[in-house]
Each structure stands twice: as C-alpha cells, then as structure tokens.
Specification:
The chain starts with a strand and ends with a strand. The model has no long low-confidence stretch (mean pLDDT 95). A hairpin with a 2-residue loop joins β2 and β3. The protein contains four helices and six strands; from the N terminus they run βββαααβαββ. The chain has one domain: 60s Ribosomal Protein L30, Chain: A, CATH 3.30.1330.
C-alpha cells in the first residue's frame, strides 16, 4: 500500500473574467475562473500532486509548464493522466478530497466531480470521497478570494 498527499490553491481571476471555473474536471457555473496558465483546476492539481507523491515523479512544474506554455495544453485532466502514467503497475484504490471555499456552493456539483474523476482514474465513483467547507471564513479561501483543495490517494 502507498499513500500520496497533494494540495493546490488558486485565487479567482480579477474582475469579470470570461474564464470558466473548472473543479474536478467539470465546469461550475456562476463563479469566475481561477487564475493560472492552465484551467487552474485546483482539485485535479491536488490529485496530480498526490499521485506524484506516490510515484516520486513531479508533473506540476516543468512537465505541466511545457504542456501548457509550449504545447497549449491547458486541461488539467491531461496533467493528471501524465501523473497516472508514472504509476506503472500501481493502481489507485481510493481518493479523499477536501475543498475549501466560500464560493461557489459545491454540494450540487460533488456527484458530477466524482463521476469525472472516476472516469479519469479508472475506478468507481464510490471509491472517491469529496467534502467541502467554508472554513468559517478563517482563511482567504473561506473569505471567497480563491479555492484550495487537498487530496489523499491510496494505491496498491
């Protein structure tokens, strides 16, 4: 058994940005997108970092920068797929995600995020847990300035 932990956070784009908010591989309407070169999907970035924690091969950084800046790949699902390729014969058995934000309210989007992540990982949605919190406004995420995600991945 192996376990990896990953974290990521981004601020919201300033002003009335046309960039959509992407979380867990889905578009969440009614909220500005997150600042970043890619789609800035903090959920998939945290997952990518957790997978990198298992394989020991960092994807976010040089690999993702090359994909984004030189090849125009801004879909964070591709970064996660690259991380999964480094696992060789290791398979993911469970994912736990915690998302902190004041906005948007995520309860109506969790099942869609689980389904999308399950497709990417090749596991059942029942093996993915997602919780969301406002953090009672104690951090910049809880005050609505951005979104933070933490992922724990278990693998065999």
């Amino acid at each position: 058994m192996k376990t990896g932990i990953g974290q990521d956070s981004h601020r919201f784009e300033p002003g009335a940005s046309p960039k959509p908010l992407r979380l867990g591989g889905i578009t969440v309407p009614g909220c500005p997108g997150l600042a970043g070169n890619s789609d800035a999907d903090v959920v998939l970035h945290a997952l990518t970092n957790a997978v990198s924690g298992i394989s020991g091969v960092n994807i976010l950084g040089a690999v993702a920068d090359d994909l984004c800046k030189n090849q125009g790949v801004t879909d964070s699902a591709e970064y996660l797929r690259r991380a999964l390729d480094t696992l060789n014969d290791i398979r993911i058995t469970h994912v736990s995600l915690s998302i902190e934000c004041a906005r948007p309210k995520l309860s109506g989007h969790i099942d869609d995020m689980k389904a999308c992540i399950a497709r990417i990982l090749g596991i059942g949605a029942s093996h993915i847990g997602i919780t969301a919190t406002s953090g009672e406004g104690l951090t910049s995420f809880g005050r609505g300035e951005g979104i933070q995600a933490v992922a724990i991945v278990t693998a065999q």
